[in-house]
Specification:
- Strand 15 and strand 16 form a beta hairpin.
- The protein is an alpha/beta fold and 459 residues long.
- Strands 4-3-5-6-7 form a five-stranded parallel β-sheet, with helices on both faces. The protein has a four-stranded antiparallel β-sheet with strand order 8-9-14-13.
- 37% of the residues lie in helices and 20% in strands.
- Helix 12 crosses helix 13.
- It contains 15 helices and 20 strands.
- The N terminus is likely disordered.
Length: 459
Amino acid sequence: MRVRAGMTGIAWDIWRAGHASQDAIARRQRERLAVLVDHARAASPFYRKLYRDVPETVTDLRELPPVGKRELMENFDDWVTDPHITLAGLRADLLGDPSRVGGFYRGQYLVLTTSGSTGEPAVLVHDRNSWLVANLLARSRERRTGVSAAEARAFVRRGLRAAALVADGDHFAGVVLTETARRRSPRIARRVRVFSVLRPLPELVAELNEFQPTVLYGYPSAMLQLAAEQKAGRLRIQPILAVASGESLAATGAAEIEAALGCRATVHYLASEALALTNRCRLGQFHVNADWYIVEPVDKAFQPVPAGELSYTVLVTSLANRVQPLIRYNLGDRVQMIAGQCACGSPFPALRVEGRSGDVLTFAAADGGTVTVLPLALGTVIEETAGVRRFQAIRTGLRQLTVRLEIWPEVTTAAVRAAAEERLSAFFAAQGADGVEVRFADEPPRPDRSGKFREVWSA
């Protein structure tokens, strides 16, 4: 009954905010931020130390120092506000057990791991309030703007069968959120499934042909690969909607997906740290759900940049999560706030995203042709090698891959390279690639000239 009451109250507040003025939304932000900062100071040893010189009453968000993934992960046990949660405990009790993906840790926390799209993975803990807010935001605002009347009628006729095109094998957001939904009832479990992009493409195509999804969601690079399979006649599905997230999708890529699959392709801008950061309006703009998240586009010195100017990075504050406070967190993306109010009439600020991108890689096949490999699939193979802290993988030829590694100090470089090479050889063999040589560079991973860190690409 208490959960139901909380759900009703949050849902009502989300509806009211969607019809409120920008001043009213700003008041919600200020009130929730003050409560969150007080809670972080009281319950998180990390924030208590970080804010020791910050005034007791914060009137300007910029009075609070920014935080980054590496800093937070190095202080994980002091960062979280529940002393029963430790990084070692999570790794021992949950993260090493695939059967627990999508379940609630200690009955109340949803735990995610990031794929390291900014070069370094993280372990993220969402309390029930954070998870509930994200769910209700998605249901309320995405449902209102995300599906057309014609698409809604098609779903009524054909039903919902959703295929999540994501990397499995860890507690990644796409897998966790899908499995959490599947755990609710057998009916949902029959209609929603994970289709791992780590599988060889012929197997993935065969499984999708059997399942016949009406919705695809997940990595756009996987959708582009499937679009090519559909054009070749090997994939035979008729989805109603394709929802891309986790990587950027250019207009040409969206058009390619739509032409091949015969459905509308749209993009979501979300993050494992902020599960319902934005919603997309009917005009295609990303609107920040500013009643529950604060977005700050900043330059390299973490100073604000004006609307219309591309930021160096973006700081995000989640106002919903109390167990692992994220306050002025460096998300690593480059965004551009849009000046003025969107023509759709939404009171929420709109932004454009430079995005998180990766190239679909092509390697020589044993039969003389070529095979394509997804960047997130290849990256997961390297990232999950014991001892790897950060990495970059660059395709330098049809039979050549160059890998840069940053190794944790307690392991040897030779051992990690040998393990990574073995895993990559097995992965390429499963994909049908022929004799790909893996070379390890002496130089460590580094950002490109634009300052953006890319993990996998083709030179």
